[in-house]
Structure formats: C-alpha cells, structure tokens
Amino acid sequence: MTQAAPDEPIDILLVEDNPGDVRLVIESLKHSKIRNSMSVVEDGEAAMAFLRRQGVYTQAIRPDLILLDLNLPKKNGREVLAEFKSDPDLRRIPVVVITSSSGEEDVLAAYNHSANCYITKPVDLTQFVRVVKSIEDFWLTTVTLPPH
Amino acid sequence: MSQTATSENLSVAEAQSILEAMVDAAGVNKPGANPSPISPTSVVPKFELPPSQESRANEAHSGIWGAERRYRALIEQIPVVTFMAAMDETIHDLYVSPQIESLLGFSQEEWLADPFLWFNQLHPDDREAWQREFGRTCTTGVQFRSEYRLMARDGRVVWIHGECQLIRDESGRPLFLQGVAYDITESKRAQAALEQMHRDLEIMVQQRTAELAKANDLLRAEIAERQLAQEALARQAAELVRSNTELSQFAYVASHDLQEPLRMMASFAQLLAQRYGQRLDADADEFIGFITDGATRMQRLINDLLAYSRVGKGDIAKVWVNCDAVLAVARENLRAVINESGASIDHGALPVVFGNDTQLLQLLQNLIGNAMKFARPETPSEIHVGATKQNDEWLFHVRDNGIGFDPRQSERIFLIFQRLHSRVKYPGTGIGLAICRKIVERHGGRIWAESVPGSGSTFYFTLPAAEVRDDPGSAR
Question: Which of A56, A73, A71 is nearest to A110 (CA)?
C-alpha cells in the first residue's frame, strides 16, 4: 500500500550522535525514490524535546519515522524509546532502532520497549546502503504510516 | 581392766595380794631366774593358811584355777600377742603370750629374760614416736594405740599394731600396763603398694593431662592456621570471581565500543573508493583496499572476541543435553560446507551430559568445522566423533585425516588468536579453538590435541559424567 500523498515528503527524525553515521545515512538516502526530509538530533534529551516541540524545537515537525541509535549521550536510546512509547501522543510513530550493537540483551530491551524493528549497522558500506534502502522500501513505500 | 572377782566374793585387794603371791612364787619376776611359764599343770605350792580359811581358800583356789585355765586358753590361742609389763624404773615385760615366737622368732623365755630386748627390737626410726605416744598415754591415761616396727630375730621387719592400757593404783601411780600386739605387715605392705599405685597413677594422669594439653594446643594452632588459610582461600576465590566478571565485562564492552570507529573506517574508505575511485590512481585504489581489508578483519576479530567473552559471561544454564542430537544439529549447520567438500562424518553413540546446549553445539561445530577446513588437498575429510566413559567423566574425540599439526604446537593452538598458517591459505581469526577450550573448561573438563603431521589430528575433550535422572530432560 503506497502513501496517500506521494508528493509530500516523508519526515524522518534521525537520532544519532556519530557525525559519520549521520553522513552515511544521508548519503544512502540521497538518491531515494521517495522524497524525504531528514532532521537530525544528537542526543536523547534533544530527541524528546524535538518530539514534544519544546525548547528550541517549538517549530519542529512531527516525524513520520524515527531512526534511533541506542548509544547516545545524555539520555540513551533505550530511555528515549521507553519514554516515547509510553506517551499516548507519540507512540504511534514507528521507530527503527539502528545501532552498532548486535548483543542479545540490547535486541531484547529494544523490542520489550516496543521498537518496531531492530537493525545492526553493517560495517560494510554496501551493506549499509542496502539496509537504508530496505528501510526506505519498507517503511516509506510498502507500509502505511500512521496519520498525524 | 579390773580383776574379775571369782565366784567367791573376794575383795579386789585380797585377790590382788593372792595374785602377787602366786606370781612371786612362779618366779617370773626375778631377773636372771629361769622363769617357767605359768601352766595349769604346774604344781603350785600350797599356801600356808589358817585352818579357818583353808576350805574357803581351797574353793577359791580351784575357782581361780578354773578361771585361770579358761583365760590362759583364750590368751594363748587368739592370734595376737598379749603382754603385761611392770612399770618401775623401766618398763619390763612380766608376761608375754607364746605367740611372740611366731611373731618375732623369740621364745617367751628369751623375751622375758632380757628386759631391754623389746626396746632393742623396736625399730630405731619408730622409737621416738613410740616414746612420745607412750608418754601421752602415761600423762593423759588415754589408751595407747600405735603402729610401729619390731625386728624379728632373723632381721625381718614386722609391722605391729600395739594397744595397751595403763593400770594405776588408787593414787594414780602407774603400776603396770597390759595390751595386745598383732602383725600388720601384710596390711602395711598392701597399703604401701596401694599408695605407690596411687602415686604412679597420679603421675600418669599428670603426664597424660600434659600430653593432652599439648596436643590440644597443637590442634588449636592448626585449626587457627586452617581457618586463616580458608579465609585467604575464600578471599582469593571472591577476588577471582570479581576479576573474571570484570574481565568478561571488559571484553564485552571493549569489543562493543571498538565496532563504531571500525565502521567509520570501513564505510568511508568504501565511500571514498566508490565516489573517487575513478579519479584516483591505482596506488590509491590499493591503499584504500588495505584500509577496508584491515577494517573488515578487525570487525571479524571483534566479533570473535565478543563471542569468546560471551562464553564466559554469567552463569550458563545447564540442562541434560543429548550429544547425539547436538551432533546432528552441528551437521545440519555445516551442511553446505560438508556437501561442498565431500566430507564424511562418522560417529559412535554419544552420551547424555549435563551442560549448556548452545555452547556444546558451538564446541562440536567448531571442532568439526576445523577438521574440514584443514583437510588435505584432494583428500575428502573423514571425520570420526566418539565418546568413552572413563571413571566419572566422558572422553570425547574428534578425529580427522587432515593436514595435522606439529605436536609441539599442541598447546599454542588453543591460545586466543594464535594461528599456525597464513590467513590466505586457511581463513579464520584463530579464536575457534580458544572458544572450544573456554567452553570445555566452563563445563569442568579438559581439552587437548594430538597429531601426526600429514596424517591427521585427534582432538580430545572431557565432560563430567553425571547421574542421569529419571527424565533425561531437554535435548535439542
């Protein structure tokens, strides 16, 4: 099922503290079929402020999809996930946990806190690009995102 | 002891004077004389008495002699010496019963002939005491009662129990004494023996007590030492646990945190190649190749390190594991490689053990995988897996017909990241066997390897055999 309004760009919130990874995601989505607009925050506190449109983020848009790293400064990704998925206003927004860890405990914790899916960042660039592409194919193309 | 009156009631004074006369007549009192013992059969001179008193006297006479016979019999039969001694300037015996002879070996005559004999026979060490006690008797009138030694004629020491009583006149002047003496040598000997035994016992008890006290002290010291050692051991064990936990946590965290910079290196090197590869020369391509290669290898090493640290992490869940089933899963996991290399895996019956099924799978898979990896060129792997029971453990073996290894390296191959071949020839980081060893050791077993280079290798490991309970539990 495709998006209702193909012209409207998909708003993605990337929560990632590593500038290299930020760059990789942006590069990977550069030639995406779907128009998308990426916002980036670098820590868990900023992520919550953005989602709640508080502080400097009063003008923030509500994202259609969140890409969430787990190892973040200030507030880590697990806490963000827990907080945000228990907020009735925010919890519909799909969250793709995309993180370096492949550890079982991390995977379990993420799903326990209602992450929509969990992806381990591949080392290989080609793989990385493929993963981001598959996110694009699935979440931006195949899936019906919840309305605002 | 007053004189008993005869059947005729003579006064004491009358009886006494008659007695004295009789004794005189018997000549007992005369020193130097040859006294004959008073005997009922000896003829006693008749007294000259006035006729008026004669019959009465004769009756009294026979009465007295009757009594005398009775008392004599008594005195001479009883098993004691009776004696009577006068007390004038010295004490000298007037009468001593015949038992003196069996007691000391002196006859009555001898005894009485020498007034000093009895004192001479009194043991020198006892004389002072005797005199003291006798003196007390004289002054206080208390009956004399003592134990002292007399020397027999043949030199024997005879212990005597002597008792005597003082007879005084009306004015209280001691007249004579009479008493008994009997042999208590045996009794004394027995008493001395008993006392000696007591002393000996006392000494033994003291010795034994001292020995026990010493042994106790030693024991106490040993216990204290043991306790210290135990405490030290407990501390060491706790330290070890803490250190191990720290180590595996460190390994886990380190591996984790190393992933990210690694990805940066690898990803951007690749991006570089992709985007600028055409614009750069062959050297640049090669350099970029080395960078990505390095990153990829590092990635694998970190993954292996993580796998290794996970083997040691926390308490492993143990269940009853059917090793036959585990082997089947391992074969399934390695199916592609098996088919590709044409390997054949043979096995004997494998036991049920108590352990962690995931780790045991990893163990078998690593060993079989290795066996196939290190096959001889052009020679399909023939692998045999088996187990035998040895005392309280199972001895497993994984035998192959591969390239083998130098037996001198048999320890090294189990070290982390140690390899015997170049990476190009035989891929791998060199962690497989280190993981195997860690798994085996966590289960309480040992692992080692033997090999004939060019022929093959056999890897052995032990796992503790446990009593299979009623239900063999979860097998895979």
Answer: A71
Q: Indicate the residue type of B50.
A: P
Task: State the DSSP H helix or E strand holding residue B389, giving kind and residue range, or none if neither.
Answer: strand B382-390
Q: Say if CB B81 and CB B112 are below 8 A apart.
A: no
CA B244 to chain A, closest CA, distance in angstroms equals 20
CA distances from B231 to B92, B304, B435 (A): 88, 38, 33
* CA–CA separation, B405 and B280 (whole Å): 45
**Amino acid type, A102:** S
Distance CA B387, CA B364 (A): 13
Chain A, window 57-116: residues with a beta carbon less than 8 angstroms from a chain B beta carbon: 71, 100-101, 103
Question: Assign residue B342 a region: left if phi > 0, alpha if psi is -120 to 50, beta otherwise?
Answer: left
Which two three-digit tokens encode residue B29? 């009192």
| pLDDT for residue A15 | 95
CA distance B459 to A33: 55
Taken as a whole, chain A contains a residue count of 148
- The pair phi, psi for residue B88, each rounded to 5°, is -120, -120
pLDDT attached to residue A32: 78
Across A51-68, average pLDDT: 92
Helix H or strand E encompassing B303 = helix B282-312
Residue B115 CA to residue B34 CA, distance in Å, equals: 14
A26-35's contacts with Cβ under 8 Å and 24+ in sequence apart are A27/A129, A27/B271, A28/A128, A28/A129, A28/A132, A28/A133, A29/A132, A29/A136, A32/A133, A32/A136, A32/A140, A33/A136, A33/A141, A34/A3, A34/A6, A34/A9, A34/A10, A34/A136, A34/A140, A34/A141, A35/A7, A35/A8, A35/A9, A35/A10
On the 0-12 / 13-18 / 19+ scale of CB atoms within 10 A, B447 is buried
Interface of B with A in 256-275 (CB under 8 A): 256, 259-260, 262-264, 266-268, 270-271, 274
Mean pLDDT per block of 10 residues along chain B (476 residues) reads 45 65 56 47 52 68 80 86 81 82 90 84 90 84 89 91 86 82 91 93 94 94 94 90 78 76 85 85 87 82 80 78 94 92 92 92 94 91 94 94 91 81 73 91 93 94 77 47
Nearest alpha carbon to residue B109 among B213, B34, B170, B175: B34
Q: Which residues are CB-neighbours of B346 under 8 A, at least 6 positions away?
A: B382, B383, B384, B385
Question: From the DSSP assignment, how many helices (H) and strands (E) are in chain A?
Answer: 5, 5
| CB contact at 8 A, B177 and B184 | no
Task: Using CB atoms, pick whichever of A101, A103, A125 lies closest to residue B267.
Answer: A125
Does residue A118 belong to the interface with chain B, where contact is any CB pair within 8 Å? Answer: no
Give the per-residue pLDDT at B113: 86
pLDDT confidence of residue A51: 93
Q: Give the pLDDT score at A41.
A: 94
Please report, as a single letter, which amino acid is at residue A69: D
Region A1-12 average pLDDT: 64
Q: Which residue has the tokens 């946990």?
A: A97
Identity of the residue numbered A4: A
Round to whole Å and give the CA distance between B336 and B333: 8
CA of A65, closest CA in chain B: separation in Å? 24
Q: Say which residues have a Cβ less than 8 Å from residue B191's Cβ, sequence separation at least 6.
A: none
**Strand duo B447-452 + B382-390: pairing:** unpaired
In this prediction the pTM is 0.48
